[in-house]
Design brief:
Number of strands: 11
Largest sheet: 7 strands, mixed
Helix content: under 10%
Distance between the termini: 40 Å
């Protein structure tokens, strides 16, 4: 059974940092791209970032580029999202998700398994 379990969310002041983790099981982790999406209150799902299977190629939404860093430890089957210089607009539930291929895409349809999400709240 494929499982993705996020952790590391919480409440932080604007300008602060958080590190999200996603522990994966039930599939060969380094065969697939892994991504992060988020959903803010009253808004749709937004792609944030993804890492290709080897971890050597990463992509970011313009809204987080230069502030967020995605990384993966294939030996530990774990994905990370380091979030710096957080803004109130970053407030959302963040989801870790497994891609269908080695290369990730920006569309949610390119992902087939999702974690339960972790809440990130940034106060002004």
């Amino acid at each position: 059974e494929v499982q993705l379990v996020e952790s590391g969310g919480g409440l932080v002041q604007a300008g602060g940092s958080l590190r999200l983790s996603c522990s994966a099981s039930g599939f060969i982790f380094d065969d697939y791209a892994i991504g992060w999406f988020r959903q803010a209150p009253g808004k749709g799902l937004e792609w944030v970032s993804n890492s290709n299977s080897g971890g050597d190629t990463t992509y970011y939404a313009d809204s987080v580029k230069g502030r967020f860093t995605i990384s993966r430890d294939n030996a530990k089957n774990t994905l990370y999202l380091q979030m710096n210089s957080l803004k109130p607009d970053d407030t959302a539930v963040y989801y870790c998700t497994k891609a269908r291929e080695r290369v990730g895409v920006r569309a949610a349809g390119g992902y087939d398994y999702w974690g339960q999400g972790t809440q990130v709240t940034v106060s002004s």
